[in-house]
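<goal> How does this chain fold?
<sample>
Here is the protein in question

***
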Amino acid sequence: MAVIIAAGAAFIYAVEFSDWHQLDAVTLDGEPVPDFESRLGLSSGQPTTRQPLALAARRLLRDEATVKVDVHYALPNRLEFETNRFTPVCLALDRVSGRMLGLNRVGRIVPLRSDYDDWEHPVVTGVAMRGIFEFCDDSRVEQLVPQLERLGDDNLELYRLIEELDLSAPTHIAVTVSGLPYRLKTGAETFFEQITGFVRFLEDYKPPVDSAVQFDLRFADMIIQENESE
């Protein structure tokens, strides 16, 4: 017990009184900031606990593309600033630039980190992106994304099987599901009910689908199968 108390006292002394925890490095989104004294108003050689972190965060927020700043203290002497660290509900492919971006839970465009590797999300296509944290040019995205989040919470396996949601057509969403040789037509506002209802339909009735190229799920109490010859 005496050894533990002595070790704890030594740690407190090191943190509060010694120079080992004084700031000598700052990173921004994983990249070093060589001029952090002038850029962020921080002071090299000063204890990290006494740095004007709120002022530094406000300086970063002056950039219109930055809406969120997280600050982490990394032992022994580094501050790490992370901006716009959002977890996307799904992905989106900009039809103009071909750039892959994320969509948050209300459908706003969010950037993907350089080390992002979670690709098991549906990809929304057929839409044009605007600025970061703005909405896509198709208002159906704002209706669709919360339902994708609901599907991910309710049936993660089905969520991960959805490869693409193509909004190119103004009248419907063309859904591609991994393993299915046909596509599904859904609406945006009732996507969750239509996609889960279709799964129940397959499980309950096991219809012949060998010649199907598309199922239209947009009508109440009715599923329309389109075959190759039609």
Remarks:
- The longest strand covers residues 212-219.
- The two ends are 82 Å apart (CA to CA).
